[in-house]
């Protein structure tokens, strides 16, 4: 049975301060006796998420072909022999995206752009249009960003993966109930890395609740962090057939159900 270790870095993000956030991640990883095969950071870990206007975040977005943040994370990935999965604001051909970069010691391997949009995403970013799956250490991974997990239309693309890596900026705990439901529904591990701290804008203050969690395909809680900045490494084992779907061709069953209900 294949297994992979994942280090969750539940970061207290310093608002709009890329250099300090990158330095903080470096310090956190340096203090660990061992770092997992994968290191998971929160959504938009280097910038924060809510702004007074779109121009503030657009100034912080980076072209992934020439990204100081990705360059810095590449150095960390090589040093700690880990694959870093991190939420980074992206600029591409005049469009702005709430994205996740998958980075190893040689640089950017993959990227994913958030498909769902909160009212804030709609103000700042263009919508992503593709799911991301990739192989690592003998397992298949998918990537979803925060609000994505609320939509089975998005998550169904990950029916066949072993682990969904889920960077988030959750302010409340209801989203963890949704993440648990998705673990059961898709028959995979759900690994949510939330943030802590605040984004302070003119209209209000957004506070993030931490509580990063890992759920098994059975919906069992494997790991739960507190509401402070923290780091934890968890071992994930391959369950190639989720127990609730043993003996069932899930996609075929979905099609059969749809054909009956749509008559």
TrEMBL record:
A Pfam family name for this chain?
CN_hydrolase
PROSITE patterns per UniProt = CN_HYDROLASE (PS50263)
State the UniProt keywords alphabetically: Hydrolase
**CN hydrolase domain spans which residues?**
4-241
Q: Does the keyword Hydrolase apply?
A: yes
Molecular function GO labels: hydrolase activity
Keyword Oxidoreductase listed? The answer is no
- List the coiled-coil residues: none
UniProt xrefs under PANTHER family: BETA-UREIDOPROPIONASE, NITRILASE C965.09-RELATED
Protein name according to UniProt: Carbon-nitrogen hydrolase family protein
Q: From which source organism is this entry?
A: Vibrio pomeroyi
**Source lineage:** Bacteria, Pseudomonadati, Pseudomonadota, Gammaproteobacteria, Vibrionales
């Amino acid at each position: 049975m294949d297994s992979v270790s994942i280090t969750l870095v539940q970061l207290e993000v310093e608002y709009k301060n890329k250099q300090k956030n990158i330095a903080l991640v470096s310090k956190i990883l340096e203090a660990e006796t061992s770092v997992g095969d994968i290191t998971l950071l929160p959504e938009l870990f280097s910038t924060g998420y809510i702004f007074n206007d779109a121009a503030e975040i657009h100034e912080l977005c980076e072209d992934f072909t020439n990204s100081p943040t990705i360059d810095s994370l590449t150095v960390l990935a090589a040093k700690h022999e880990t694959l870093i999965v991190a939420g980074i604001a992206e600029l591409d051909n005049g469009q702005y995206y709430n994205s996740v970069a998958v980075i190893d010691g040689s640089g950017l391997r993959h990227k994913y752009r958030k498909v769902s949009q909160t009212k804030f995403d709609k103000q700042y970013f263009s919508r992503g249009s593709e799911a991301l799956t990739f192989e690592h250490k003998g397992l298949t991974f998918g990537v979803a960003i925060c609000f994505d997990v609320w939509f089975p239309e998005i998550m169904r693309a990950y029916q066949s993966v072993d682990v969904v890596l889920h960077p988030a900026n959750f302010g409340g705990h209801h989203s963890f109930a949704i993440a648990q439901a998705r673990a059961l529904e898709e028959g995979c591990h759900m690994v949510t890395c939330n943030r802590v701290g605040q984004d302070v804008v003119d209209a209000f203050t957004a506070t993030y609740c931490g509580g990063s969690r890992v759920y098994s395909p059975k919906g069992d809680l494997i790991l739960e962090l507190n509401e402070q900045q923290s780091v934890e490494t968890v071992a994930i084992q391959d369950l190639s057939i989720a127990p609730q779907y043993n003996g069932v061709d899930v996609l075929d069953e979905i099609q059969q159900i749809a054909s009956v209900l749509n008559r």
